[in-house]
Amino acid sequence: MNNTGVKVRSSAVRVRDQFVLARYGRLSRELYRKDASPALLEVFTKPGDVWVDFPLFIEATALICRRFGDGTPALAKQCGAFGAEANVGAWRAMLHRLLSPKVILEIAGMLWSHHYDAGRLITTQRSERAITLSIEDFPTPHPMHCASIEGWLLRTFQFSRPKRVSVVEVACRTRGAPACQFEGDWE
Q1: 16: closest CA among 75, 71, 69, 97?
Q2: Cα–Cα distance list, 132 to 17, 47, 102, 172 (Å)
């Protein structure tokens, strides 16, 4: 696997394996794992939460998109949403009742370095119910990662139970933009 130098927590990679099991079942997960590289399979089966090479995150996500989708990053959004659910766990009830989407995302920005060893997640409020989320200084942008973040962002907004949520990727470094950016709004 080509090492870009960027690291991600193995738990973020394993969420993809859990997504396949939850969405498609045990047999599909076995087939998914058969397609995985030896390094990715090791991440899926080795206990603990350690730093691993970011390309393993991309491989795990792209493999889902190829095996269960049309190869585009569409399923990566669903993986990101599933990851948001996995990350919030028992805190979900508190998030529903107490925190606005803006506050939740500001907390997520503070936790970015727990999941990635590079880049920053910056939240900028555009209005009372609209934000821009930027991934800055991340050295290895990838469409699968951006789609995952978009799905994660959408599901994260939904935790505070707004009536309506909209999330759109408005810029991406893979398309020449200076940062990957998402605009979200809710009511």
Answers
A1: 75
A2: 30, 36, 10, 13
